[in-house]
Amino acid sequence: MNGTRHRTDPGLATATPLVELRRVSKRFVKALDVSARIGNLLGAGVNEEVVRAVDGVDLAILAGEVVGLVGESGCGKSTLGRLAVGLLPLSAGERYWSGTPLAGLSRAAARAQQLKMQMIFQDPYASLDPRMTAGSIIAEPLDIHGIGTKKERQDRIRELLPLVGLDAAHGVRYPHEFSGGQRQRIGVARALALDPDLIVADEPISALDVSIQAQILNLLQRLQGRLGLTYLFIAHDLAVVRHISDRIAVMYLGQIVEVASSRDLNTRPLHPYSVALLSAVPVPDPGIEKRRKRIILRGDVPSPAAPPSGCRFHTRCWLRERLGNPERCSAEEPVLRELESGHAVACHFAEDVAGSVEQALVTGRPTAASTSVAGAPSGAGTASAPPTATGPAVPGE
After folding, report:
1. In degrees, to the nearest 5, what angle opens at C-alpha 126 toward C-alphas 120 and 128?
2. Are residues 224 and 305 in the same domain?
């Protein structure tokens, strides 16, 4: 990614984040079904169900950086992306842009600030209006904000279409006349129309054929180098996130459980959930793949309407079982703490993951670690064989 600032740039360590989320939360009230409504009318007093989609998340993104956001479906990744760009109002917490809080801005200032943040949506079919031409779709942000004359907007369309790999003459075509990859390029061009600084890419390649995914990824990287963009890149595919990201944040049930550089997360994961996720990613090396081990998590993801007490991952955690099910996991919510330089993790016993047999087998690196657990809490059991219970596999596709 030529022209971008990478995590090795010493300036990134001290720079003010371009966008920062502090303790942000988003709660949705789930609509009551018919029987519950009737019960309320009859005086039963059925309470509405509150879904905690995002719950107390801290995240900072530096200018010129690509931050990957990964996790299982339903963990709150897309909601967090929409909160970052202001498409959804916060239930709690604060948003900052270059150190300035956005909550107190006037309506005009907030509207001007919104021009700097845009989004690329997951579905290239549903995110484009089938009644509008490609050119009209790209020019719509300019129309809404009253930017430029009609001729200037047409010039902008003719500039953006070749920039994303389409012919300038394609602006008169309708979405159904394009392939899936071409539609996503139109979505990218629409996001670029207002010349933003931050783009949230919400799983921009998951709905595309594998042969097209690499083309869109390469396009996003070229655009970042040419335009100096900052990305929050949301995806399921850890291999893709590793390829494009400077840092990676792992999300589980509405909370971020680990943040680290792309290299550190993939070679030294420190949260049991991250280790399980990485175990589902194949390695294109038969020798390493033969030594690796798949960690199967027990049970299903809990409901965000009723998350477990304490650590939200403790109901499925292989490390907790290994340690003899310490009560602290279910009684005390872990904080996101920096365990190593630039590597933060929300786990009471993350030190026991570092250098463990599971960590080494997942990453394919040999280790001298024994199967005993160092620093086990009082009452914790000694290490045993890895969990063998069957259950739904962690999605890694």
Report:
1. 65
2. no
Domain count, the chain: 2
pLDDT digits over 281-309, tens only? Answer: 887 778 777 777 788 888 888 999 899 99
Q: How far apart are CA 39 and CA 102, in angstroms?
A: 42
231 and 290 together in one domain:
no
Per-residue pLDDT at 253: 95
170-173 CB contacts, 8 Å cutoff, 24+ apart: 170/134, 171/133, 171/134, 171/135, 171/138, 172/133, 172/134, 172/135, 173/133, 173/134
Domain boundary among 193, 222, 252: 252
> Is 196:229 a contact under the CB 8 Å cutoff?
yes
Q: How far is Cα 98 from Cα 202, in angstroms, rounded to an integer?
A: 22
DSSP 3-state assignment of 227?
helix
Dihedral sign, CA of 264, 268, 271, 275?
positive
Q: For residue 87, tell me if it sits in a domain.
A: yes
Spatial distance between the Cα atoms of 14 and 7, rounded to a whole number of angstroms: 11
Which helix (H) or strand (E) segment holds residue 225: the answer is helix 210-227
Pair (230, 160) in one structural domain: yes
Query: Is the Cα torsion angle 375, 378, 380, 383 positive or negative in sign?
Result: positive
**Count of residues making up the chain:** 397
Dihedrals phi, psi of 94, to nearest 5 degrees:
-140, 150
Question: Are the C-beta atoms of 57 and 232 separated by less than 8 Å?
Answer: no
- With a cut of 70, which residues of the chain have pLDDT below it? 1-14, 31-47, 363-397
d(CA 283, CA 294): 12
Same domain, 87 and 133: yes
State pTM to two decimals: 0.83
Whole domain around residue 392: which residue ranges? 268-397
Strands (E), 212-287: 230-234, 247-252, 255-261
Which positions ≥6 away from 183 have C-beta within 8 Å? Answer: 124, 125, 128, 175
Chain Cα centroid distance, residue 151: 38
Residues 165 and 293 in one domain: no
| CATH code assigned at 122 | 3.40.50.300
CB 354 within 8 A of CB 270: yes
- Structural domain contains residue 129: yes
344 and 221 within one domain = no
